[in-house]
Amino acid sequence: MYNKENNYRYRLETYDPKVRKHVCPACEKKSFVRYIDTATGEYVSTDVGKCDRLEKCGYHKTPRDFFNEHGKPNTKDYFFPKKTANTTHAPDTFSKVSAGFAANTMRSFRENNLYMYMLKQFGWRATDRAISLYHVGTCRYWPGATVFWQIDSEYRHRTGKIMLYDRITGHRVKDPVSKIMWVHKLQMFRDFKLRQCLFGEHLLKGTDAPVAIVESEKTALFASIFFPGTIWLATGGLENLREETTRCLMGRRIYLFPDLGAEAKWVKKANSIPALRTAIVSTWLSENSTNAEKAQGLDIGDWLVAADRGWNLKVEDYL
Fold first, then answer.
1. What b/e readout covers 275-284, taking b as 16+ CB neighbours within 10 angstroms?
2. Contact 51, 57 (CB under 8 A)
3. What is the rounded CA–CA span in Å between residue 317 and residue 287?
4. Phi, psi (5° rounding) for residue 137?
5. Is residue 245 exposed (0-12), middle (13-18) or buried (19+ Cβ within 10 Å)?
6. d(CA 236, CA 216)
7. What are the sequence ranges of the domains in the chain?
């Protein structure tokens, strides 16, 4: 992708008729061309680019606009040489995965099992919007695997969770063992100091929309399609619902949607965490599920897909 005749570090990617254009973050049409860093061959960010629908949309976010928002990168802490660790941290803080490294996974979605399942359930427009909104990636650690990036409100990539799903059922692959791996555990990373955040935290910036919290990253993706007026976050595990990861939620309207059978644990957690003491813990799923569904431990995402409830729902109706 590097053009020796081009003196600019950042340029719009070259048109390739074999590759479909990206979904525009403004008009949600397949008309978006992203900016590339010619020094690395990677995207600046998934929302940095230009919509080809100049008259009907006109969205154009330049690298300068992005760096004005997030700070100017440098070779030490933004993009990293191929043979060095893709992390950075200062003493007593935490490591970050470079944004360029993460952006490089946000492609090849036809190889992504979860993406293909969502495409069947929701269609390409809703699927691409959700995938783009949460900056979900594709990982070849296992063929067809998905990577859920934990991006905080300052747009720092804390880590990523790699998971393999069945592209037909949409369920996690657990046979013979559960296929879960962390990006920071890959061999290319060294001396990684982990500090997790909630999946989807980056969506909090610039809005006071109500927040709903679930356990599974996949459920947050699905619920964002059914309830577009609410910011859906995922803990990725009950142990990640704690005071440190929820400080960013102070003063917000918060709803908790535990998996079936986990309601009592979530109530106890909410009562012990300052930011969640005014949160509403939903019991709707427990009150409206069959015994068989309770035995399966379904979550709100599974239930909505199975029940085919329709889109643009009101989260208040499910409390």
1. bbeebbbbee
2. yes
3. 13
4. -120, 175
5. buried
6. 5
7. 10-72, 85-195, 207-318
Report the chain's terminal Cα–Cα distance, integer Å: 50
Residue 319 CB: number of other CB atoms within 10 A?
14
Q: Which two tokens stand for residue 4?
A: 């020796």
**Where do we find the tokens 């860093």?**
37
For 275-304, the pLDDT digits (tens) are: 888 888 888 777 777 777 667 767 777 777
Helix 113-134 vs helix 217-226: crossing angle, to nearest 10: 70
231-234 and 280-281 as β-strands: parallel, antiparallel, unpaired?
unpaired
Does residue 101 surpass a pLDDT of 90? no
Residue 317's pLDDT band (cuts 50, 70, 90): low
Q: Class assignment of domain 207-318?
A: alpha beta
Cα–Cα dist 131/147, whole Å: 11
Q: Which amino acid is at 237?
A: G
The Cα-based distances of 139 to 17, 46, 117, 165 in angstroms read 24, 17, 16, 12
CA 313 to chain centre: 21
pTM: 0.70
Angle, vertex CA 159, rays to CA 155 and CA 160, nearest 5: 105
